[in-house]
Design goal:
The protein has about 325 residues and is an all-alpha fold. Helices cover about 85% and strands about 0% of the residues. It is built from 14 helices and no strands. The radius of gyration is 25 Å and the shape is elongated.
């Protein structure tokens, strides 16, 4: 009898593991969306709790929150994508019409060999436009699948808000962390989230927006494209926005447009690059800053693993891993 009970126990464990493996396989196509929704819900949950004080019905309040987030994210995203497409066409036409012979001659004289900047520029323009056209084509062909993903995302987000307290209670019950340490760990986790989402991403977004304004004012072609790239470079430690505005200003100067060239150079150095030092310390304290290595690996690893949303998810995952490691070492 004991032998039968022993084999029954192992069979149950094996069956349980198989079910877990199949469930993970089932959820894999939606893994990125589930992680993104969990992060977005966590960030907006304080707003949900405040709103829930006025809208007592939790289901209705959850629905309102989902609509608010869709308006905040989807509409601006649509406008940005549309603007990027228009800017890409202008970027291509502008590159084709540029006369880069003086710059080619200057660099060739310095390097001591012939360097065809015009050819490189046109090849770059062709590559970028080809990528955008291919991406747009892939998007429209996969539109039915994306609508399914959007439905699942909205559905899950609604229930994350509606049953958020129950989910947190469940996670606390299954968590291996001692109950005396849970509140301390949660407080540290909030610091990590705040540091990454507000300290890093919000600062980068502000730098990108201010940088884009400078590109528009000083007549740089395709300012939205370069401004968007500026946001990404602003996230990466030791890189920053200068990677965009400095070459653009030098390009203007070398082509004889001294007013716009020096204007952008001064604007980038005194305004765009100093935003990081002015805003970030006010958003996050020095104690909650994430190590630059984790930011770099998180940004590029996140982009590769999760796509664009990985810029946010990647550093957050590595930041959380670092927090758990330091927490257990300390304890």
């Amino acid at each position: 009898m004991m032998e039968i009970q022993k084999y029954s126990k192992y069979s149950l464990i094996l069956f349980f593991l198989v079910i877990i493996a199949l469930s993970i396989y089932l959820l894999l196509p939606f893994l990125t969306e589930l992680v993104a929704v969990a992060v977005i819900t966590y960030v907006f949950y304080p707003l949900f709790k405040k709103l829930n004080k006025h809208i007592k019905n939790r289901s209705l309040c959850s629905l309102v929150m989902v609509l608010i987030i869709l308006l905040i994210i989807i509409i601006p995203l649509f406008l940005i994508v549309n603007a990027l497409f228009i800017e890409a066409v202008n970027f291509y036409q502008g590159f084709r019409s540029l006369n880069l012979a003086p710059l080619s001659n200057l660099i060739s004289n310095i390097a001591g060999e012939t360097i065809d900047i015009q050819g490189y520029a046109q090849e770059l323009a062709d590559t970028i436009v080809s990528f955008i056209v291919r991406s747009a084509s892939d998007f429209f062909f996969s539109l039915p699948q994306k609508l399914i993903v959007l439905f699942v995302t909205v559905f899950v987000m609604y229930y994350f808000f509606k049953d958020g307290d129950k989910i947190v209670d469940f996670l606390e019950k299954v968590s291996p962390i001692h109950k005396d340490h849970k509140s301390e760990l949660l407080a540290e986790f909030n610091k990590v989230v705040y540091a990454i989402l507000y300290g890093v991403l919000v600062t980068a977004a502000i730098q990108g927006i201010v940088g884009t304004i400078g590109l528009v004012v000083f007549d740089v072609p395709s300012p939205i494209i370069w401004g968007s790239i500026m946001i990404l470079t602003a996230i990466i430690p030791f890189v920053g926005t200068w990677l965009i505005w400095l070459p653009a200003s030098l390009f203007k100067i070398f082509n004889g447009d001294l007013f716009n060239g020096f204007g952008l150079l001064i604007y980038g150095a005194l305004i765009v690059s100093t935003i990081d030092n002015l805003i970030k310390p006010k958003l996050i304290s020095q104690k909650s800053q994430i190590h630059p290595i984790l930011i770099i690996l998180g940004v590029f690893g996140g982009l590769k693993a999760f796509g664009l949303i990985g810029v946010m998810i990647g550093p957050l995952l590595l930041g959380t891993l670092s927090l758990l490691y330091s927490f257990y070492i300390k304890k």
